[in-house]
Amino acid sequence: MAVRISIGRYYSADSPIHRLDPRLKLIAAIIYMASCLFVSNVPTLLLAGALIVLAMALARAPLGRVLSQIKPAMYFLVITSLFNLFFVHTGTVLATIGPFSFTTGGISSAVFYTLRFLLLLLMGSLLMLTTQPMAITDAVERLFSPLERLGVPVSQATLILSIALRFVPVLSQDAQNIVVAQTARGAQLEGKGALSYTRACVPLLVPLFASAVRHADNLGRAMDARCYTGGPERTHYHVMRFARRDAVAAAVLALYLVALAAASVFA
C-alpha cells in the first residue's frame, strides 16, 4: 500500500511567483478560482488557461509536482464529466446508445465543467507549491486582522491553520513508516477493490491516530516551554511589504478580469 500525500509541500525556487507578496498571491488565487466558475465559452476558457500557463511558467515548478497535488481530485473530475455527458440532454442529439443519448449540450457541459474545475485546482496547487505554509497563514492573519477588534480570535485560528498545514507531510511520512512496519510483521495491506483497500486501511488508523496525538502533545509542551502567547500584539519575523512586482502582478490580474468580462459579454 502506497501512501502519498503532496498537499502542503512547498517547492523551493527563485522565481517571480515565489517572490510575490503572500497576501497578493492569496487574493489573486481566490479571485482567479472564482473567475473560473464564469468560464462558459471558448474565449473565456482560453483566457483562463493562458493565465494559469503563464503563472506556471513563471513559477518554474515542475509540471509533475503541480499535477501530483491535484491527482486525488481527478476521480471527481471524471465522475462530473461523465455525469454531464450522460444526463444533460440539451442541444442536438448526436448519437444514441441504449438508454443514453449524447447531445451537443451534454458534450459541451462535460468539457467545460471538467476544464473549469481543472484550472481551479491547478491554481490552488500552484499557490501551495510557491508559498510556504507559514507565509500563507501570516497572509491570512494580516488580511483578517481588523476582525480582532470585534473579538474574533484571528491569531489563534491562523495558528491552528499553520499547524495543520505543517503536519500534513509529517503525518504522511508517519503513515509510510507504519505501512512498512505492519508489512514487516506480516500484515496483508495490499488488496484490489474499494472494500479490500478499506480493510487494509483499518490497521493503520490506531497507530496513525496515536502518532498524531503524540506530535500534538510534544508541540504543546514545546510551546509552553517557550512561553508562547498568541494575540494581535504578537510581532512577526518577516515583515510583508508590497513591491513593484506586486503592482505589476495586480495589474495583470485586473487586465485578465476585464478581458474575461468582455469575452463573456461579447462572445
Automatic annotation (TrEMBL):
<dbReference type="Pfam" id="PF02361">
    <property type="entry name" value="CbiQ"/>
</dbReference>
<feature type="transmembrane region" description="Helical">
    <location>
        <begin position="75"/>
        <end position="98"/>
    </location>
</feature>
<feature type="transmembrane region" description="Helical">
    <location>
        <begin position="24"/>
        <end position="40"/>
    </location>
</feature>
<keyword id="KW-0472">Membrane</keyword>
<feature type="transmembrane region" description="Helical">
    <location>
        <begin position="110"/>
        <end position="129"/>
    </location>
</feature>
<protein>
    <submittedName>
        <fullName>Energy-coupling factor transporter transmembrane protein EcfT</fullName>
    </submittedName>
</protein>
<keyword id="KW-0812">Transmembrane</keyword>
<keyword id="KW-1133">Transmembrane helix</keyword>
<dbReference type="InterPro" id="IPR003339">
    <property type="entry name" value="ABC/ECF_trnsptr_transmembrane"/>
</dbReference>
<dbReference type="GO" id="GO:0005886">
    <property type="term" value="C:plasma membrane"/>
</dbReference>
<feature type="transmembrane region" description="Helical">
    <location>
        <begin position="247"/>
        <end position="266"/>
    </location>
</feature>
